[in-house]
Amino acid sequence: ELKVEQNPLFLSMQEGKNYTIYCNYSTTSDRLYWYRQDPGKSLESLFVLLSNGAVKQEGRLMASLDTKARLSTLHITAAVHDLSATYFCAVEIGSQGNLIFGKGTKLSVKP
Amino acid sequence: DTEVTQTPKHLVMGMTNKKSLKCEQHMGHRAMYWYKQKAKKPPELMFVYSYEKLSINESVPSRFSPECPNSSLLNLHLHALQPEDSALYLCASSHPGAGELFFGEGSRLTVL
Prior knowledge:
The complex is a heterodimer.
Chain A: E1 4-7, E2 10-14, E3 19-25, E4 32-37, E5 43-49, E6 55-58, E7 61-66, E8 71-76, E9 85-93, E10 98-101, E11 105-110
Parallel strand pairs in A: 2-11
Antiparallel strand pairs in A: 1-3, 3-8, 4-5, 4-9, 6-7, 7-8, 9-10, 9-11
Chain B: E1 4-7, E2 10-13, E3 18-25, E4 31-37, E5 44-50, E6 53-57, E7 64-70, E8 73-79, E9 87-94, E10 102-103, E11 107-111
Parallel strand pairs in B: 2-11
Antiparallel strand pairs in B: 1-3, 3-8, 4-5, 4-9, 5-6, 7-8, 9-10, 9-11
């Protein structure tokens, strides 16, 4: 059974600081996704990582994937309040869109 | 059009009611999904339709009945639900096998 573990589950940071969210998974998969969810809202796709060594950046967020270590990271640079949300990583089983989500990291960026 | 549209946004129903959730997309995606998300929990897969055929049913109780009338529409028929079925129901779509899922805003269901 595939397990996806995120840490930390809660993250309170000050604006301007850097931090990293980690996502470990237990079985082989070459597809990893990062989503953002604001309270009461749906999931917004942030990154799709499809191969070992993949690195993608969008604004203050950068995601990477190491399939050998079964680890993905989401790095936040110079956080701003607008980044406050819950961030989920998800790993795909098979190729039919069956995503197993981590528990999510609730990020709170304080002025 | 890059949206997945779900209706209704909110639904309150009794345990004896029959209701339906609807989902529509016009991105040409041939895979559509229902996920269930309880409060403060991650989403969990319920059903996958690929080319309008049910390809995955994650052991969902029969009181939830999915239907895919055509490549753009996905319904979830609800009957005799329990209070513990109260959750946010998310529809998503993608190209089959292509990975990235696009989620709708969700239908927030409350069962009294």
